[in-house]
Amino acid sequence: MGSRILIAATAIILAAPIGAGVTLPEAPGDADFMAVDPAEAELGQLLFYDPILSGNRNIACATCHHPRFGTSDGLSLGMGEGGIGLGPDRVEDPDNPPEQRLPRNSPALFNLGAEEFAVLFHDGRIEVDPSRPSGLRTPLEDEMAEGCANLLSAQTMFPVLSQDEMAGHYGENDVSRAVRQGLITGDGDAWDIIAQRVAGFDGYARRFKAVYPHIETRDEISFIDVSDAVAAFMAFEWRADDSAFDRHLRGQAPLTGAAAEGMALFYGRAGCAECHSGPFQTDHGFHAMGQPQLGPGRTARFERHSRDIGRARVTGDDGDLYAFRTPSLRNVVHTGPWGHAGAFEDLEAFLRHHLDPVAGLADYTPQAVLPALAAAHDDFAIMADPDEVAAIADAVSRDPVTLDDDEIAALLAFLDALTDERALEGRLGIPDAVPSGLEVPR
Questions:
Q1: What percentage of the chain carries pLDDT values higher than 70?
Q2: For the whole model, what pTM was predicted?
Q3: What pLDDT digit, counting tens, does each position of 328-348 carry?
Q4: Cβ atoms within 10 Å of 239's Cβ, excluding its own
């Protein structure tokens, strides 16, 4: 009886406002996450760290999403194909340099196995859509391969098709040539080429047959099977719901001091929870927050500007200009640089900009982490153009919020309380070796 009373009392406390009209979210639990088969996750772990998935066999998923850098890469804008090394130490390969930087900051991977994540990428170009044959809306529209286990699996299918990320420059390998020719789905397509590469290794063929009942021979391994396994690994490895904030929500150990003050501000007067709502601090929506634009922008090959108009490039709606997806804030203090273009190396500077985006944009001082790249565009071309900066500012609809230095420090303390140490380390970790025998990114 006593334990039931304690549980009921805790629920009342957590449901109660922490300030006028302010209520905390419920703590996430097992029911909020996809179920994961451990054997499937272990297979996905090997694939995630194996460069075999890239056109030139030199880039793994982990190259741009590494636990050393909070499942990102520690760069403002990454360097995919044509790069050597890891994180801020990555440099261009003098024998095969990149054609450009990657256009957007590498997003963190925490809690992507949570059921509520129904839209992914900074612009939301991958999202659940029951009206489509595949159940998903993607850049491939109705040509998207059917059968992915979930949205996260579908997301993993696209970086391997990008020449700047993993496929390689046009013409230099069988994958990039297939992409260039538009061979994406079907026998002999880019995905099929990679799947058959993987299937050629006994260590993989054996594991796929053990994990997936529908696979009896190595020839039956498809890239959807590969992507499903990688998704299972990410969902298992980086589930982050055991932070100090979670323990506060569960009534296990209340937040105190500056973190508690920051929590009250976050869910109260600072207005952070208007967008960073729910158990993972995201409304999964798109908002124009006046973020500085760096690098090549998100453009088509024939375009000659460095603009990134965000969600509007997906929807064609001017109301979505310069709007980007609200990121989850779990482990946020470890996932910098911050912003869709990684414009902020310092989290406090990023927070101050968010409080008054228009003023922050006007006062922006470059602090990006951008390794030298001979072929790079002028990384700050947009920020040097008053008309471009004005267009970004004009899209902002948020009113400024004024906080003093102590309140900003409290908010930062609360953001630190969203850290889940176990998720940062990962549950399976980095494998010692992969079946292909290629070098594992460390």
A1: 94
A2: 0.93
A3: 999 999 999 999 999 999 999
A4: 24
Q: pLDDT per residue over 391-420, tens digit each?
A: 999 999 999 999 999 999 999 999 999 999
Cα(88)–Cα(341) distance, integer angstroms: 15
**Per CATH, domain 244-421 is 3.40.50.1110:** no
Q: How far apart are CA 416 and CA 327, in angstroms?
A: 16
Q: Where are the domain boundaries for CATH 1.10.760.10 in the chain?
A: 244-421
Token representation of residue 374: 């001979």
Vertex 349: Cα angle to 347 and 351 (nearest 5): 70
Q: What is the pLDDT of residue 12?
A: 38
Q: Which CATH architecture has domain 38-65+109-238?
A: Orthogonal Bundle (1.10)
